[in-house]
Specification:
Blueprint: H1 2-30, H2 34-48, E1 54-64, E2 70-80, E3 88-95, E4 103-107, E5 115-120, E6 125-128, E7 156-166, E8 169-178, E9 187-193, E10 199-205, E11 211-218, E12 221-223, E13 227-229, E14 232-237, E15 243-253
Antiparallel strand pairs: 1-2, 1-15, 2-3, 3-4, 4-5, 5-6, 7-8, 8-9, 9-10, 10-11, 11-14, 12-13, 14-15
Length: 271
Amino acid sequence: MHNFRVAVKTVALPFAAIALLVIALVPLAQAQTTAEKGLEIAEAAQAFDEGFVDFTAKMNMILKTKQGDTSTRIIRIKTLEVENDGDKSLSIFDEPADVKGTAMLTYTHGLEPDDQWLYLPALKKVKRINSRNKSGPFMGSTFAFEDLGSQEVEKYRYQYLKQESCGDWTCYVIERTPAYEKSGYTKQIAWIDTQAYRLAKVEFYDRKKSLLKTLEASEFKLYIGKHWRPGKMNMVNHQNGKSTVLEWTNYQFKTGLSDRDFRAQSLKRLK
């Protein structure tokens, strides 16, 4: 009888150990990966801003050279929210005289290349921007063509890095790697406000994985009770010393824009 009890204990111990191990591993199996959490934050940020329908705004683009010289361009912005696709946006240059009438139209997509057209009044020609040139500078600024479309979730793969203070806010810090072809960036590090999902800062790394640019957004205001928009965006190129400030004013939402206002063949007739 004594030997039987010993045998029972000997057999029972391994099963007890296995049960405890399974219980210990369940939380690990259910734990969210950094990729899942990064994607979750990106999806929440996109969902938070859905429903704006359309908006118009005025933008001052201030170009600054490494030597400190500045020049200003005045631009009208129109944006249309598109269901099940990226937004459509139109930028029309009003000043100075040498760029007056220049316009850029962008249809943003997910993994598919964005469609972009540039109208140059001096040539009286609408030029389609080749996807190979999307990493080039837009109108002499520190913004690339690929920076100008809406940042659809599908465009990137994500990793959650950490949570930290960013000015007066607490921010999620996520890494996003372009999933689309021919990007000028190997990765971007983004700081996103944990409360209203405002994009506070982005670091852009070039094809050599070196820090190329930093974008900082500030002076946010809340419109129609839901949609936050920055009053200022500053993009600094650390490699050439140039910077571009975008000053946003006169936001107007739900103005009645439609697809008719975003046609490439109409760029020559814009006023």
